[in-house]
Design a protein that fits this description.
about 160 residues; 10 helices; single chain; globular
Length: about 160
């Protein structure tokens, strides 16, 4: 999933909480909660493109278990910020689960950990073009980095890029 859908959904979640609690800071917090979990892709990009390993997919900050834990915390806390973080993060996971056409277990952290983060057990497929969501989401940096990512992809997936 790309940056704009996550940020937009986070802003919508934050707006609802801001309206309900009369707390305008819920809007940027909602955006942060919906966008920041994707920071974990930096590690996956390193693993995939620098180490050139297709074996593992970590996505360490993506997990339905975290949604449950955040909702439990919010249930006991009842604060605007706990609600915003809980709902913003849930929107991140829901959009990824649907938008990335992932297997049912892709976003279950404990399943990925149990299977040692092996890509095929967790994700069910290889991922040539893994970088495209990043390069398309970050217009000030993506086009500059795309040739490097594409070259790595050609080296790692010759069957996809065969001429």
């Amino acid at each position: 999933m790309k940056l704009i859908p996550h940020a937009t959904t986070g802003a919508a979640v934050g707006s609802l909480v801001a309206w309900g609690w009369n707390e305008p800071l819920a809007i940027p917090l909602g955006v942060a909660a919906a966008v920041l979990p994707d920071v974990d892709h930096i590690f996956d990009f390193y693993w995939h493109y620098v180490r050139r390993s297709r074996k593992r997919l970590f996505i360490l900050f993506h997990g339905w278990e975290f949604v449950i834990l955040l909702h439990l915390y919010q249930f006991f806390d009842h604060s605007w910020w706990a609600s915003t973080i809980s709902l913003g993060y849930a929107s991140q996971i829901i959009l990824d689960q649907i938008g990335n056409n992932a297997k049912w277990n892709t976003y279950i952290f404990s399943w990925r950990a149990w299977n040692r983060f092996r890509r095929f057990e967790s994700y069910g497929k290889d991922s040539p073009g893994f970088y495209k969501a990043f390069t398309q989401s970050v217009p000030w940096l993506g086009p500059k980095m795309e040739p490097w990512f594409k070259q790595r992809d050609k080296e790692m997936y010759p069957e996809v890029y065969s001429d």
